[in-house]
Amino acid sequence: MKASIKDFNHGILNIVENIGLLVIGIATVVAMSSEVINMVKALQVTLSDLLLLFLYLEVLAMVGLYYHSGKLPVRFPLYIAMVALARYLILDMKAMDNWRMLAATGSILMLTIAVFLIRYGHVKFPYPGDDVSDLKEAEHYRKKS
């Protein structure tokens, strides 16, 4: 009886999780399409437009990786944060004072160090039950998408 309730709850959570991932994926594709349409209408592509498209691609890669492996590496949100901060710097650089610019670039540096430390930790000290080949396969999947 207990096992069947647990399996039922797990099944419901799995369905909700998949619906949430589907909504995130669809919303990202709609936002990306909207951005491409705006670029075509303006007959111009700026660096901030490209960085925004990279943000959308990272979100899609994160969703795809989660579907593929069932795991979400912490690095993905960190990559997204780095690109978002770089886009922020590019868009508002002229209006920023020196301290705000220094804070944003320092934040990117800290996120980069965090990604390095996390990656180093996963390679040198893998979690028990974590197969290193799974991590390599996930990284290979990310590079392909």
Amino-to-carboxy terminus distance: 43 Å
Structural class: mainly alpha
Order of helices and strands: HHHHH
Which strand-content bin applies to the residues?
under 5%
The count of helical stretches stands at 5
Attribute tags:
145 residues, mainly alpha
Written description of the protein model:
This protein has helices spanning 2-42, 47-69, 75-92, 98-124, 132-144. It is mainly alpha-helical. It contains 5 helices and no strands. Helix content is 84%, strand content 0%. The protein has one domain.
In short:
The protein has 5 helices and no strands. By secondary structure, the protein is mostly helical.
Topology of helices and strands:
Elements: H1 2-42, H2 47-69, H3 75-92, H4 98-124, H5 132-144
